[in-house]
Specification:
By secondary structure, the chain is mainly α. Helices cover about 75% and strands about 0% of the residues.
Protein backbone atom coordinates (compact mmCIF):
# COMPACT_ATOMS: atom_id res chain seq x y z
CA UNK A 1 0.00 0.00 0.00
CA UNK A 2 1.48 3.32 -1.02
CA UNK A 3 1.83 6.40 1.13
CA UNK A 4 -1.03 8.16 -0.62
CA UNK A 5 -3.38 5.18 -0.04
CA UNK A 6 -2.55 5.13 3.66
CA UNK A 7 -3.21 8.85 3.97
CA UNK A 8 -6.49 8.44 2.16
CA UNK A 9 -7.64 5.56 4.38
CA UNK A 10 -6.59 7.48 7.50
CA UNK A 11 -8.57 10.48 6.29
CA UNK A 12 -11.62 8.28 5.68
CA UNK A 13 -11.43 6.72 9.15
CA UNK A 14 -11.09 10.21 10.63
CA UNK A 15 -14.22 11.28 8.78
CA UNK A 16 -16.12 8.29 10.16
CA UNK A 17 -15.01 9.12 13.68
CA UNK A 18 -16.07 12.74 13.18
CA UNK A 19 -19.51 11.67 11.99
CA UNK A 20 -20.11 9.33 14.92
CA UNK A 21 -18.90 10.85 18.19
CA UNK A 22 -17.74 8.43 20.87
CA UNK A 23 -20.14 8.32 23.81
CA UNK A 24 -18.94 8.48 27.38
CA UNK A 25 -19.78 5.71 29.83
CA UNK A 26 -22.40 7.87 31.54
CA UNK A 27 -24.06 8.62 28.20
CA UNK A 28 -24.15 4.91 27.27
CA UNK A 29 -25.63 4.12 30.70
CA UNK A 30 -28.32 6.78 30.23
CA UNK A 31 -29.25 5.31 26.85
CA UNK A 32 -29.44 1.79 28.31
CA UNK A 33 -31.63 3.01 31.20
CA UNK A 34 -33.95 4.82 28.79
CA UNK A 35 -34.49 1.57 26.87
CA UNK A 36 -35.50 -0.36 30.01
CA UNK A 37 -39.21 -0.77 30.57
CA UNK A 38 -40.58 -1.65 34.00
CA UNK A 39 -42.05 -5.10 34.38
CA UNK A 40 -45.77 -5.12 33.76
CA UNK A 41 -48.01 -6.43 36.55
CA UNK A 42 -47.87 -10.21 36.67
CA UNK A 43 -44.91 -10.44 34.30
CA UNK A 44 -42.34 -13.00 35.39
CA UNK A 45 -39.25 -13.27 33.18
CA UNK A 46 -37.88 -16.77 32.59
CA UNK A 47 -34.79 -16.05 34.71
CA UNK A 48 -37.00 -15.19 37.71
CA UNK A 49 -39.02 -18.40 37.31
CA UNK A 50 -35.87 -20.50 37.05
CA UNK A 51 -34.24 -18.74 40.02
CA UNK A 52 -37.28 -19.12 42.27
CA UNK A 53 -37.65 -22.76 41.26
CA UNK A 54 -33.96 -23.42 41.87
CA UNK A 55 -34.08 -21.83 45.33
CA UNK A 56 -37.17 -23.87 46.24
CA UNK A 57 -35.62 -27.08 44.91
CA UNK A 58 -32.43 -26.47 46.91
CA UNK A 59 -34.42 -25.91 50.11
CA UNK A 60 -36.55 -29.02 49.66
CA UNK A 61 -33.61 -31.19 48.57
CA UNK A 62 -31.46 -30.19 51.55
CA UNK A 63 -34.20 -31.05 54.06
CA UNK A 64 -35.03 -34.29 52.21
CA UNK A 65 -31.36 -35.33 52.09
CA UNK A 66 -30.98 -34.61 55.79
CA UNK A 67 -33.92 -36.83 56.74
CA UNK A 68 -32.73 -39.48 54.27
CA UNK A 69 -29.53 -39.68 56.32
CA UNK A 70 -27.09 -38.40 53.68
CA UNK A 71 -23.70 -37.60 55.17
CA UNK A 72 -21.35 -34.81 54.10
CA UNK A 73 -17.66 -35.75 54.37
CA UNK A 74 -18.56 -38.67 56.62
CA UNK A 75 -20.69 -36.69 59.08
CA UNK A 76 -24.36 -35.86 59.30
CA UNK A 77 -24.87 -32.08 59.01
CA UNK A 78 -26.41 -30.13 61.89
CA UNK A 79 -30.21 -29.92 61.69
CA UNK A 80 -30.22 -26.21 62.56
CA UNK A 81 -27.87 -25.44 59.65
CA UNK A 82 -29.99 -27.42 57.20
CA UNK A 83 -33.21 -25.74 58.37
CA UNK A 84 -31.62 -22.29 58.36
CA UNK A 85 -30.36 -22.75 54.79
CA UNK A 86 -33.78 -24.05 53.72
CA UNK A 87 -35.51 -21.05 55.33
CA UNK A 88 -33.16 -18.60 53.56
CA UNK A 89 -33.72 -20.31 50.20
CA UNK A 90 -37.52 -20.34 50.66
CA UNK A 91 -37.46 -16.67 51.65
CA UNK A 92 -35.35 -15.91 48.57
CA UNK A 93 -37.73 -17.90 46.36
CA UNK A 94 -40.74 -15.99 47.69
CA UNK A 95 -38.93 -12.67 47.32
CA UNK A 96 -37.87 -13.41 43.76
CA UNK A 97 -41.35 -14.58 42.79
CA UNK A 98 -42.67 -11.31 44.26
CA UNK A 99 -40.01 -9.43 42.27
CA UNK A 100 -38.36 -7.96 45.34
CA UNK A 101 -35.09 -6.27 44.45
CA UNK A 102 -33.31 -7.44 47.62
CA UNK A 103 -34.16 -11.09 46.90
CA UNK A 104 -32.99 -10.94 43.30
CA UNK A 105 -29.78 -9.16 44.27
CA UNK A 106 -29.13 -11.55 47.18
CA UNK A 107 -29.69 -14.60 45.00
CA UNK A 108 -27.41 -13.14 42.37
CA UNK A 109 -24.71 -12.67 45.03
CA UNK A 110 -25.08 -16.34 46.07
CA UNK A 111 -24.92 -17.29 42.42
CA UNK A 112 -21.70 -15.29 41.98
CA UNK A 113 -20.12 -17.05 44.97
CA UNK A 114 -21.18 -20.40 43.54
CA UNK A 115 -19.62 -19.52 40.17
CA UNK A 116 -16.33 -18.58 41.80
CA UNK A 117 -16.26 -21.82 43.79
CA UNK A 118 -17.13 -23.88 40.69
CA UNK A 119 -14.39 -22.14 38.72
CA UNK A 120 -11.82 -22.81 41.41
CA UNK A 121 -13.02 -26.40 41.77
CA UNK A 122 -12.57 -26.92 38.05
CA UNK A 123 -8.85 -26.32 38.47
CA UNK A 124 -8.53 -29.22 40.92
CA UNK A 125 -11.16 -31.57 39.48
CA UNK A 126 -9.86 -35.14 39.75
CA UNK A 127 -12.10 -36.95 37.29
CA UNK A 128 -14.36 -36.39 34.28
CA UNK A 129 -17.54 -36.31 36.39
CA UNK A 130 -16.16 -33.46 38.51
CA UNK A 131 -15.13 -31.52 35.40
CA UNK A 132 -18.56 -31.99 33.83
CA UNK A 133 -20.31 -30.91 37.05
CA UNK A 134 -18.16 -27.76 37.30
CA UNK A 135 -18.71 -26.87 33.64
CA UNK A 136 -22.49 -27.39 33.95
CA UNK A 137 -22.59 -25.15 37.03
CA UNK A 138 -20.47 -22.50 35.31
CA UNK A 139 -22.54 -22.50 32.12
CA UNK A 140 -25.96 -22.69 33.75
CA UNK A 141 -25.12 -20.34 36.60
CA UNK A 142 -23.37 -17.89 34.29
CA UNK A 143 -26.37 -17.77 31.97
CA UNK A 144 -28.74 -17.25 34.91
CA UNK A 145 -26.50 -14.55 36.42
CA UNK A 146 -26.38 -12.71 33.09
CA UNK A 147 -30.15 -12.88 32.59
CA UNK A 148 -30.85 -11.63 36.13
CA UNK A 149 -28.85 -8.44 35.46
CA UNK A 150 -31.47 -7.15 33.03
CA UNK A 151 -34.31 -8.28 35.32
CA UNK A 152 -32.74 -6.28 38.16
CA UNK A 153 -32.66 -3.23 35.93
CA UNK A 154 -36.30 -3.65 34.98
CA UNK A 155 -37.39 -4.16 38.60
CA UNK A 156 -35.56 -0.98 39.60
CA UNK A 157 -37.14 1.17 36.85
CA UNK A 158 -39.88 3.35 38.34
CA UNK A 159 -43.38 2.73 37.12
CA UNK A 160 -45.11 5.40 35.05
CA UNK A 161 -48.17 5.18 37.31
CA UNK A 162 -46.15 6.52 40.26
CA UNK A 163 -46.51 3.40 42.46
Amino acid sequence: MGRRSRKQSLAESGEQAARKPRLSGAERDAIARAELNPLSPGEKPLAVKISAGLATALAVANVAFYFAGVEVQGQKPALIGVLLFAAVMLLAAWGMWSLRYWALLGFQALLAITLVIAGLSLMVAGNAAAVILCVVILLGGGWLFWKLIRVLGRVKVPSLRGD
